[in-house]
Design goal:
Elements (H helix, E strand, L loop, with lengths): L1 H5 L3 H10 L4 H19 L2 E4 L1 H9 L11 E5 L15 H6 L8 H8 L3 E6 L33 H8 L5 E6 L5 H7 L2 E4 L20 E6 L2 H11 L29 E4 L11 H16 L3 E3 L17 H23 L10 H12 L2 H23 L4 E5 L19 H4 L2 H4 L3 H6 L3 E8 L5 E7 L5 H14 L13
Parallel strand pairs: 2-3, 7-8, 7-9
Antiparallel strand pairs: 1-3, 4-6, 5-6, 5-10, 9-11, 10-11
Helix pairs in contact: 3-4, 7-8, 9-17, 11-12, 11-13
Length: 484
């Protein structure tokens, strides 16, 4: 049974519970067996919550769309009170730190019927595009264990790709949903800014750059989960516009006629590797065959002739570093002492120092530049385009150790540019974007493609993603390390 379940998405597993063919406890036992089989090889799950999961599965499971389906939380972001929350940090691990409250999102996951039995690995504070924290060691890509599953939701990506669970919690501040989705051959939707509440502790994390959802094996799982968890919660600083209809209603919409532009030139200085370009070109042909119009156009066309594209690297750093500086200060309050360089990885400290050094005026200036970029992209969409097609990443999955947070002079941060070249831009601007597993390199590595929609239009992404999935299904493709 466990082997069969490893290949089922969450919707199919929930249907087993609904029909009485399986119980929540049976699904949980099978998931735990799969984790025992493959987790030692990929190091995806770092906290065991099986005892409380068994208690939940044996009790009154909420009658949500995923009633009884096993689930994993990333050890950063959504959390239940009393559970370990270490965020990839040795200092929190050594302190035995635990989440003080339930987040709204964790409550909504529970309300959807999901049974959380563990938490997944993440780099320290989710800073980089790999998952190799000093606190818990490297997570490994099931497609090639010498390579990273990405970051910062790398543990979740590895667990889903290896068949332990059909989907897992993930969040995204510069690509941390879409990068693991690309590296692991999964679906990864970054919702519109503030589509999903980050409360009650967090308002708009890093000025609204981070968002929450999942990595999954199917578009329908992503749509159903988004329906279950989207929407405002008390005290949210602002909210995304409500959907036009439930997202699941987009899954069977066969309408064509969307106008789609292509951008395969990275908005940072990084040469895009050929498999990533091939992925976009093949995806463009597929999308065109589904009745959509594809054109060589992007918001870069709005720049003056001869002007370079927007290199967001340093302005993004201003906001990213400010976030690390604020977080270390907040953690110091919670731990009762000021954190020092000895408490964190070198890159974390380097970024916190930058965050403290750059002035409030510099921060507001860079936010203003990002808002101008947001308007430029919005103008391009308003000129008649529905979607933008790009590579998800500018490179295939890097090898373990290539992104090194011990390097001086932000070396670990700059090495992430190839992974985040096409993703971080849309954290800055707030638009929703989805990575789909449509290509594999000659040596068998997944290569994702990204579709970006106007602000608030996840419906368009889910509609076309479901069309693409029917035309070029990926469910039967499994990695060498697989629990089924």
């Amino acid at each position: 049974m466990s082997d069969d379940l490893a290949r089922m998405d969450a919707t199919a597993q929930a249907e087993l519970v609904q029909s009485g063919e399986a119980s929540a406890a049976e699904l949980l036992d099978a998931a735990l067996a799969r984790a025992e089989k493959v987790n030692p090889e990929i190091n995806a799950i770092i906290h065991d919550l099986s005892d409380e999961a068994r208690e939940a599965a044996a009790g009154d499971v909420p009658d949500g769309p995923f009633k009884g389906v096993p689930f994993l939380l990333k050890d950063l972001g959504a959390a239940f009170a009393g559970q370990p929350l270490h965020m990839g940090m040795k200092v929190l691990k050594e302190a035995g730190f635990r989440a003080p409250v339930d987040t709204y999102l964790a409550q909504r996951f529970r309300g959807a019927g999901l049974i959380t039995f563990g938490k997944t690995n993440t780099p320290e504070l989710g800073i980089v595009a790999t998952t190799e924290p000093d606190a818990y060691g490297a997570s490994r890509n099931p497609w090639d264990t010498d390579r990273t599953p990405g970051g910062s939701s790398g543990g979740s990506g590895a667990a889903v790709a290896a068949g332990i669970v059909p989907m897992a919690h993930a969040n995204d501040g510069g690509g941390s949903i879409r990068i693991p989705a690309s590296n692991c051959g999964l679906v990864g939707l970054k919702p519109t800014r503030q589509r999903i509440s980050e409360g009650p502790v967090v308002g708009d994390n890093m000025g609204g750059m981070t968002v929450e959802l999942c990595v999954s094996r199917s578009v329908r799982d992503t749509a159903r989960l988004l329906d279950a968890v989207e929407g405002a919660a008390p005290g949210d600083p602002y909210v995304a516009p409500p959907p036009l209809r439930p997202y699941v209603e987009e899954l069977n919409d066969e309408s064509g006629g969307l106008r789609i532009g292509i951008m395969d030139r990275a908005p940072v200085e990084f040469e895009v590797e050929q498999p990533c370009i091939d992925a976009v070109r093949n995806a463009a042909k597929l999308v065109e065959s589904l009745g959509h119009d594809v054109e060589e156009s992007s918001f870069l066309d709005l720049l003056p002739e001869g002007a370079d594209g927007p290199d967001i690297g340093d302005t993004f750093l201003t906001r990213w570093a400010a976030g690390q500086a604020a977080t270390l200060t907040q953690l110091g309050v919670l731990l009762g002492r000021e954190l020092t360089a000895d408490d964190v990885e070198p890159l974390t400290w380097q970024m916190a120092e930058i965050g403290h050094a750059r002035t409030g005026g510099r921060y507001l200036l860079d936010v203003t530049l990002h808002q101008g970029l947001s308007r430029m992209i919005a103008m391009w969409f308003e000129s008649g385009y529905d979607l933008l097609l790009t590579p998800t990443m500018a490179e295939v999955p890097p090898r373990i150790g290539e992104i090194d947070t011990s390097q001086p002079d932000l070396g670990g941060y700059t090495r992430c540019l190839g992974s985040g070249a096409f993703t971080a831009l849309f954290n800055v601007t707030g638009q929703p974007a989805i990575s789909l597993p449509l290509h594999w390199s000659e040596d068998g590595l997944p290569v994702g493609v990204q579709l970006v929609a106007p602000f608030g239009r996840e419906d368009l992404l889910i509609r076309i993603a479901a069309q693409i999935e029917r035309a070029a299904p990926w469910a039967d493709r499994t990695p060498p390390v697989f629990a089924g």
